[in-house]
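**User:** Everyone, produce a chain:

**Assistant:**
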Amino acid sequence: MKAKTKKWLGIGLAASPIPVLVLTLALYAISNLVFSSVAGGGNGGSELAVLIGNIVNVALGLIGFLATIGIIIGIPVGIILIVNSDRDPKTNKELVKEMKMNPHYNGDMKAAVERSEQSLKDNPHYNS
């Protein structure tokens, strides 16, 4: 994924759940007001209006639930995408190729890392 795409996706994931939740709550209140007045305020109003009102309330409840999940999951994922959008991580093939070029590598990755660290410690110009 390109850095620009990651950044905009991260902004969208981080910024959208809260306004969606607020909008859903506002629409829920408005729809309850409208459908209760159309249905006659509980005085035996139109069954169709009550049915439509219930369907709209269920749909808005599901959207609100998804927005809440978006707050829990979307905001952290969005922040991670924004932070990592500037980084260009190496692919696994590039890392393996680079490791094989390491003079301390003989097939055992852990041993190669230990030998590399030891050679750094043995270097008099290395400050640890």
